Fold these 3 entries.
Entry 1:
Amino acid sequence: MTRRSLLLSCLLLAAVSLAGSKSTNVTEATLWFEQFSGEHRILLNKVVEASWASNTDINQENEKAELAARLQLSQFMLSKRQEMDKLFDWAHLGNERLKRMFTKAADIGTSIVTDEAKQTRFGQLRSDMIRIQSTATVEHPDTGEPIPLSRVVSLMASPDVSEAVKKALWSRWRDASGRPVKQMYEEYVDLANEMIKEAGYANFAKYWQSWYEPKEGQDFEQVMAELFNGLLPLYKELHGYVRHALMQKYPASIFPPTGHIPGHILGHMWGGRWDDLEPFTKPFPNEPQIDVTKVMREKNWTVRQMFEASQDFFASLGLGNMTDTFWEKSVLEKLPGVDMVCHASAWDFYTDKGDFRIKQCTEITGHYLAVTHHEMGHIQYYQQYEKQPVVFRGGANPGFHEAIGDTIELSVMTPGHLRKLGLLESDSESDEFYLNSLFLMALKKAAYLPFGYLIDNYRYKLFKGEVPKNQWNSEWVNQRCQLMGVSSPVLRSEEDFDAGAIYHVVANVEYFLSLLLQFQFHQSLCQAAGVTENFHKCSIYGNSAAGAKLKALLESGTSLHWEEALFKISGTRQISAKPLLDYFAPLQAYIAAKNKENGVSVGWGNNCPPDDWYKSASPSRQ
Ligand SMILES: [Zn+2]
């Protein structure tokens, strides 16, 4: 026993026996917390190490080790929760920061459950689902060879692949990765709800929403719904414009009469990102091209160079370089000869010695350049809040963590910065050129809005038990039709589980709020850099005033309620759709006028195309 912990034990014994009740003594509570933090950090590190091993080399042994480490952490959190409840009246500590630390430590989620079998099963289900997604293959419709998701994704994105092949891949991927996780996800939802009830939450959706610390009387889902509704006019114009362009390329027979876009021709397996459609949908095809992938390949860019470009951007803001450990231990390309989880991710190892890593199966493309910045944003967050106590080492809310790298991406992808990187040769400053550039960004970000919202909204409904299990797939399909205006290319049934074919669903990732936040951050940082309009042209590269604002936000971690963190960077405490709408305003005006000119009626029917439509006419629709 160290001298410090001996002192602590004496103090605590004295406190409990003398007062005969729980202590609110700040010194005692601080000492207790320091000791807890030290042990907590070590166990967290073990979990992250084990999880890293099983993510970069999927095998049963690694999976078992990860589950064991997670179980150990759960048991520790539960015992410490019981101890702090016994020793302290922590909700009445006279120090706000310390009280918040205790509040965070008390939130142990499903660790509250003492049943080891349940804990193990819960972890097992999640890793099984991720493994199925990461290792599934489908038969190539032409060659018959088995291909992994990464190949499927690039075929879906290619304008040269036929519509028939895309349709086959669309279904086959869902057969290979959605159907097999259907029962697991059902069990996962039941178990998550059962476990979280012990922690006092009505269901897992409510627990999830608690991470956003809604204020008394605030209805989180209502707030999200209002934000989403505010964005719909922009999305509807974009949807109408893109549908019109797709109708010039594909036969009319594949488009349902309901106004939906069939999901397999959007260039993305889930219809969330449409940027691969840009070459044949952009407003001004004769303007100089912005083709980052092409130039990167011509100039022989390397994976390392992509990460260095991102590091350089953050450094230019005064945020510092990546650590040596980052460069030594990150896995930046697919490892040969092993199965790994290729969905890109960033990791904090809780060593207090700068051990932060990225795992990413990087390809030399513009898309991966954006993903690289996204992941580097997580690393910068880790790095800046490393000095905070472990319980404060997190994003102000989950949306904040996802928004940082994307905020930087908004600067990086401006024509001005692409020129600086040598990725754009044209020096055009014409309005048409900038509308093309803005359009490309809209295909990435505005197109994603209803997809991000759908994923969150759908999961909330499942966890709240509002959808009978035998309607889970039709619920997904119907919500997708309603919110995204995107339909299935082939009829679906309850044998299918299309949502389960999406990594974000099974891995609990959420992006909707981060889409709004990144535009809010971008606008505020640009304003700090002296820019007052045309935020789509603004890059904050090299601006120390913007950098200082961002740094202040990152350093605070979760030590502040996110409203205060937001206030630090933007001067407002409310998440707002306005900066995003401001950003895209010139494009929205242009495409709305164009839709009118082309006689496009924007919007879509509330219901999916009827079964009859799928069954009738050409057999290729089946
Ligand atoms: Zn992320």
Entry 2:
Amino acid sequence: MKPNPSLPSADFYDHQPIRDQFPTLKQTIGDHPLCYLDTAATSQKPQAVIDAMTEYYQLNNANVHRAAHQLSTRATQQYEAVRQQVAHFIHAKHQQEIIFTHGTTESINMVAYGLTAQVQPNDLILIDTAAHHANIVPWQELAKRTGAIIKPIPLTADAQLDINAYEQLLQAKPTLVALCHVSNALGTVNPIIDLIAMAKNAGALTLVDGAQAVAHLEIDVQQMDCDFYVFSGHKMYGPTGVGILYGRFEQLNTLTPMLTGGEMIKTVSFDRTEYGELPNRLEAGTPAIAEVIGLGAAITFLQGLPREQIKAHEQLLMRYLQQQLLNLGDITLYGVSNDNSQSNIGSVAFNVANEHHQDVGILLDQQAVAIRCGHHCAMPLMSQLKLSGCCRASIGIYTNKHDIDQFIHALNTVKELLL
Ligand SMILES: Cc1ncc(COP(=O)(O)O)c(C=O)c1O
């Protein structure tokens, strides 16, 4: 991608009424308005999410499923209504295919643990080189338990998944392919439907990490035809502490539960325990009830937005952000396709000349600009890029052109200080 000073700075969607719903963004730090460009780490929360959780604690606080009193009935109804909502949101076939977890990390661990009995020594597991550690380490643990072999799917020189190399690897008939939908470090987007179709042709199970996709893209797990799709509430304007494991019913039903105990059983005696049906068999213990209700409010919030306009706005912002960075000079962008054929989603990764990413982050913070610096929980990707780390600026539905301008102005000051 080349610098282009003539890129449009107008035509952004006027979404001030949406931004106004995020109380955190109304603050100043020092003399500067907060410029939050760390949405890929966690998004800010709209008032509707905060209110839904407060209302649960103020009016309906009770445990779900077990008691025969009205508070519990209300809490259970709200909790189960969110399951239905999530199923609808990602176009799952049955609501029993939606398991509430504590986040993407737990969801992947549940699948990796749950498959232990089905994986044999020398079975092959393919993992996207751009994967987050949450989509690497649980598979390594599975390999330790079973004797399976892990191979990374290589990337091309511009950090896109290498389809030819993938095709070659699939000839060895892997048992499972673990992909990311959108890379958290670079914002690159995988052609997920094609990748899954190729894996299925080779007879592999597929798990897609959608943590960075679900807030930006319409997700249709049936169209995607994946076996598992996982994401976290806190990256889609919902609370921390709740996530989703979607699984095709037949696949979920064969997973060995990672957690056992109350809620997930049909009968228990000291001789024998019989597990309950899905989804309960994979939801042992008291769930994160308020957080699930908050997630439901986040989905309602997202569904009430003009998604196409927001998508166009985010795409324009991303291009503006990339171009403004390049126009600044002394900036290297990572994971941007050379011919501009692939657009990134949500995140832009960069470094300033040879300066340490952490120094850049600290100096930006002094100007109230929040970005993330480091390896972004993607050390194999960083080593492929021959980097110890980089800076990442990431946007959300509340980000506006002023944020980008404030960031670029602050980065220019950092450059003047450092170079
Ligand atoms: C692509 C991706 N996968 C997994 C995770 C882990 O998510 P969580 O910490 O919510 O479990 C993240 C978080 O940054 C992510 O971006």
Entry 3:
Amino acid sequence: MTANDADGRLSPDEAFAALGDEVRVGILRSLGDAAEPLAFSELYDRLPVEDTSRFNYHLGELRGHFVRKDEAGYALDHPGRRVVEAIRSGAVTDDPDFERTSIDDRCPACDGRLEIRWCDGSIEVFCPGCENRWERSSGRVDAAEEPESGYLGRLPFPPAGLRNREAEEAFRAAHAWTVVELLAVGTGICPRCAATVETELDACPDHEDDGTCSNCRSSFAVVFRASCTNCPYHVGSAAALGLLSSPALLGFMLDHDIDPLAPRSVRLFDRFFSEYDEAIGSMDPLRVTLTFSLDGDELALRVDESGEIVDVSS
Ligand SMILES: [Zn+2]
Ligand SMILES: [Zn+2]
Ligand SMILES: [Zn+2]
């Protein structure tokens, strides 16, 4: 393999061209499965290739970037590990068949059983007894899709997360995965590539409080949006979820027994982040106050247009 410049970097087309062969992908997967470096013969024996020189050619195409060789044998280099991680997550290949399924977890608003299904890289959550929290097409590229009733939102989750888990376990794992992503976003870090993210709050000036507002297509008057400055990652949520990483909010939740990452807290968490008060102080510059109530205690966070907390009162 030849690198295109002096510091040994490959261009994206060179990198993907080097992966464009099933033997090479097989080599990466085998090295990813191995607990330690493999000798040439060990690696060769793991792949269905008859011809040593052909195998050697493909291995050579991976060396120097995806695969390294030292005295101990062949092993993945960092880019090779990232490729195998992406393959194993299923994110670039799998489209699991996971139809809408009723689960034991309950809706925080009406106590009905939630329903989940897999769609487009996420677990979608529905409550048959409730109105939509969002228009289902919100944030999607193919935004013309009709909303389904009772849509509460979606939890991004790689397909591998569905393996070996019952529907309830997958739902809770997707919840935790989403919380981890939001904690990263709230700290200014893209959860997919670690580059910086840009954040903003958006408020609906004529919000209708009853159900999904016909102006903003959401049940929340103030929404949070973040997008990565480097990769296509973007996220939209209720404004409060954009503040998840703030010590004031985390402290308030933990003081009231809501651990954002504990499965037993999923319902409390969802209620907490769907039943707070939103007050728009001014539209320009945007200033909103989000007030949370738990067990008779209150926490009010005043937030600016970028989602920064400018004042905390309790
Ligand atoms: Zn409900
Ligand atoms: Zn609205
Ligand atoms: Zn990114």
